[in-house]
């Protein structure tokens, strides 16, 4: 079994592309995987978002606004996850699409639209958005990112439990292109046949992928 942790900016366009590329790759290889979307918000992530969106880095009011809606969208995703991981992922992809592809502004109305498109129970979702449990879960995600040394989004952690009960992992920093993730899945499938006791994912590090790190 593979386990994938996708650390994302919940309003980020680059993260939207990364999520889709990973899901499409796994489906095309018919590779079973446990997928965990982990939304994050910190000062670096906000700065990266401003840069990618060509927004004024020195506008403190704008920076605070982006920080606030990014954090609120973390709570939105966690609230959606109470109704199932698949629906929560669909909700997040909907929200990112509306903001980055359709250029709509984040608002409670837009969140409700994205939730309805994901077929969430809106009454329950609205109540959960501001619950203490949701905030506690977001803090747990922050701690997980810290343990894995993840500071920016998108960052993807791929853990393979098929050959090692403790799991062998690699961290992919930045955008994940479809062909790279295809290569990772294909290389992992043949890695152990090529070299006995070779350190997992070691082959990938010899192919000039400087944004890959073993865990």
What would your notes on this structure say?
Helix 1 (13-28) packs across helix 4 (85-100), helix 2 (43-52) crosses helix 3 and helix 4 (85-100) packs across helix 5 (108-117). Mean pLDDT is 85; it is low at 189-200 and 202-208. Helix content is 53%, strand content 13%. The protein has a 5-stranded mixed β-sheet with strand order 2-1-3-4-5, sandwiched between helices. The chain is globular and about 45 Å long. The chain has 8 helices and 5 strands, in the order E-H-E-H-H-H-H-H-H-E-E-H-E. With 215 residues, it is α+β, with helices and mostly antiparallel strands. Strand 3 (155-160) and strand 4 (168-173) form a beta hairpin. InterPro entries: Thioredoxin-like_sf. This is DsbA family protein. Pfam families: Thioredoxin_5 (PF13743).
Short note summarizing the structure:
The protein is 53% helix and 13% strand. With 215 residues, the protein is of the alpha+beta class.
